[in-house]
Amino acid sequence: MSTRQLKTQQKIAQPTIKKGVLVVPKNSRMELTEGAERPNQDQEYEDIVIETGGRLLHTVYKTPYKSRSVAIAANASYELRCLTVGEQQIVNNLTVELKGERAEAHIFILTATSGTSKLQERIHIIHRAPNCTSTVLHRAFASHESTVDFTGTISIAPQAKKSNAKLTSNGLLLSPHALIRTRPEFEILTSDVGCRHGATIGELDEAALFYMTSRGIDLMQAKRLLTVAFAKEILTGMPEGPAKNESTAALDYFLDHAYAV
Amino acid sequence: MSAPLLSINNLTVVKDEVPILSGCSLTVPKGEVHVIVGQNGSGKSTLAATLAGKPGYQITQGSINYLGKDLLTMTPEVRAGEGIFLAFQYPVEIPGLSMIEFLRASTNAVRGYRGEASLEPLPFLDYVRSKLKVLKLGEQFLERSVNDGFSGGEKKRNEILQLLLLEPRLAILDETDSGLDADALRTVAQVIQELRSPEESFLIITHYAKLLSCLTVNRVHVMHQGKIACSGGTEIITDIERHGYAGLFASL
To answer: What is the pLDDT of residue A5?
Structure first.
């Protein structure tokens, strides 16, 4: 397994690296960005451990994480915003284990693929302790002849009573030649849990396009505003900084070229 | 009577292979307020959607002349630029698109079509604030996503806000009064009265006499089976309230 480059955007706590594992210490808060051009702060890691009461706000863009596991202890939380924009061949596998009571994981994935990209995203959240919460929101734009394959699985172990989990995947096809496959899955091995999932794949809403054009907005601008709106829920949650600026610029560039077949 | 702003001649419209309008003819002169009433399914909303250029409505016969031009050859955005405005019966929700962004995009698009300069964010904010005031809407309204999570009344007021911003020549209000409380209804009537000018016309589709009691109306048209069955003054509304549509048609 290859190591990853870590670039610290805002350090409230110092990351600890032990044998390629990033550790968020007990009761500390950390913000990390992978993909930002910030020299002299590089460290290497592959997997992540968040100790009791720790909190990690994690942004990944430009670079795929390929294969990663995250272990979250009691009262700790992990929030990931992962953006993939452009023409790429990527297979991402993420496994998140909620190991202690009241642990939380919130995963937001936005992909905007073009050309002949092939993108596979696999997210597996495992609830191993009671009273844990997880959300997965996956949004995909596919243009040109790109292919997106998303599998989101949430497993609730027998001891993970009162788990709360939500898994949503929305795909937007921007070309008749693009392909999106999505599989939201739940494996529930206990009772007394709250689990919801939903998946949609479609084209831009014709009713919304008409509403906008009836207000004088030309069709291309209307499509652009709608696609940006689709991405906004994930983009607006990103911390301000170079990652957000570069992601927004990359998405703008993508949308400028998205409708050309 | 002033020069016609809109002339619909013998219009037949088919949707999903079902004829909805069958030989509909209607003229709206400049500066007048016309009202269309009719039973559910009589074709009122189809006429409104056709005027705004909604896709999926096939014109199999007839013509629509607007300010001397063939309206049916224009795209929806060109119609908006030319001054057609449809206040939707069911405004569309667009999660993620803020009201301020949407309103500025639409205002500047229409201004651009008319050869007017775009409004930068700050002058636009001043402009929109003045319109919010008219409708007694708070500024936080602008931060919300378009129609997302709005109450029925808020959606209708949002349509009127857009009407105020875009300053159309022909405003078509498709049951804008449905779902409005008495105060909001009075505000909408005031807006229409204030916007009335020798150049600006209104086509109001409604089921209720209440809005009409606050307005000076030039003509009332009754739509039946896809065409205008009869036209007259507001006494038609009184007839319908007393005898129903069946009574009205029996007396024709």
So the answer is: 46
